[in-house]
Amino acid sequence: MGLIYDSRDSDRLKAGLSANLTAALSMLDDSHSASRGLLAALATGELSGQGYSAVDALFAQVITPALSDTRTEVESIQRDLDTYTWADAKVSRYGVLKEDELNAQLAATRSQRDATERIIDLNTAVASAVSTVPMFGEALRALNSQLELVLAHLEKQLRELEDMLRALKEFDAATRGLFRKGPPVRTVASTVAASAAKPDPLRTWTASELMNLLALLSPAEVQRILTSNPELAQQFWNTPPPAEAVATWWRSLSPEQREQWSQSAPSIIGNLPGLDADTRIHANMIQFQRDLYDPSIDPNSPRGIVIQDILTALNVGGISGPGLNYERLAKEQLPPRGLLAYNSTHAPPLAAVAIGDTSAEKSGKVTWMVPGMDSGLGKKTDTLSGWTNAAVNVWKTQEYFERDVPHMTVAWIGYAPPTQDPTVLHGDHARAGAVRLTAELDGQWAASAILGGNPSPFTAVVGHSYGTTVVTNAVSAGGGLSHNAQSVVLLASAGVEKDIPTADSLRVDGGAGQVYASQSSQDQIADWGRAGSGRGDPRDESFGANVFSSEGDPANRLKPTDGHDVLGYGSDRGGYFSQHATAGQGYLNMHTEAINNTAAAALGLDSEINGGTHVGKD
């Protein structure tokens, strides 16, 4: 078999090797810095004694030379990669090249060229011999003119084929012998594994260090580390690696490797921004079913309560029996559902449910939904399921507006919301939640663009009550978001922080034109939240959002919202200090004007917003 080149395989090789080398160099830098600090302390006598003398000798005789040798090997591989990249640039434009096929095409094209030349020569000779018959000679010369064009095309084809074959052989010659030592990551990987396996409550891992763990270690190694140091999964939640790096790494793995990662480290893979929804759901359901059948988890503990809440949210709570595949059962619901985030060991537990069509990442629209106060998990068994029902209603309404577009909504409770106490008047919960939400939104972009091949990802964000404070912090210009959202909707806002003065301060395509706000005139709780906290009202003219109505429109059979809740309950609105929306008349109950306009605004469909929009409260 002759040489074969495929630019896609080459791109994957370059990306994977580059990630490994970056991780290796980063870890070597960290190790070198740590060893210098220790040696400096030993040299000054700050650390002394027989044990420390042995450590000094170990560093001098083994560790420092090993680090130096490893760096030399890494730098050698980097030079090989540079050479490979330079050679690849000359051949990549051809896409796929196969030596055997090129040689066959060359032989066939040469034969066709030679035959064409013989016909031209024959026609020329015959035309000269019959010069006494002008019309016949002219016809042959005209035919030869056409054949000359064919011949020129064949010559061009030959040159192109020869160029391709030459480029293939030159690429082979330039890259033959590279990477013979193999990527020198095992020495570094051993160091990484040993460090990660030691529980250290005082240590905070950086995002790059966590990316190193994924790039350098095998799934089995990470599984062993999680067994001895389960807190590592929370480090990945708190400081996830850059989403684009995660997506690029995942794209380089085979399906078999991806499954190994999902089985070995589901608590990491299921919550890793940058991975696609199907992958995260699959990993999270592996971990969820392990927890579901774990006899050590008290059903009345926050973990036990959230497990029951998740079963209800996935609409599979009434299904029981041995060997059930809850991932498949949830996907078979109408609409389909999946556990997009699952962190039951956190206090409080954290989770998110995806509703609808996960292909929306590749070719549709995704809407993330953030709740407000008293939506913390692990206290009641209907919190996540209630928020999921609201997200289902939004999905149904979006499907009504755009029947041919895939939609996915995400019922996200990935932060610790405040309760009905003075903490709701402060921004600490919102700022903490915004950090994780920012990572999730950038992860959504990476999953759509890098893994899904979507040239124009569409991500909307809807916040309710204190959730609007989380959302505006997350998408603010200073919030760290790398990729703009396409739409932001703020319902019954508990207020926007003063350092976010206008809707144009948010990272949204179209600026203030794609930022929407609404509050029912019968909702006083949102007013109290803003008054007590001093935060701004996004409906203010100075903020500049597009304000839509939640007052109801009987002519269009759209009900009013008569309280602060997303889903109303009961036949009355409660007492003065316990006001709530009545049954069917929350912001996100079906057939309210609020949900009609929220769904349309999230999709950027201004023409479907009942009553239109205006700037300012009136």
UniProtKB/TrEMBL annotation:
Where the record annotates domain DUF1023, the positions are 350-527
Coiled coil region boundaries:
140-174
Q: Compositionally biased, Basic and acidic residues: which spans? A: 554-563
- Where are the annotated segments for Disordered? 517-563
**Which residue windows are transmembrane per the record?**
none
Cite the entry's keywords alphabetically: Coiled coil
Name of the protein in its database record: DUF1023 domain-containing protein
Organism equals: Leifsonia shinshuensis
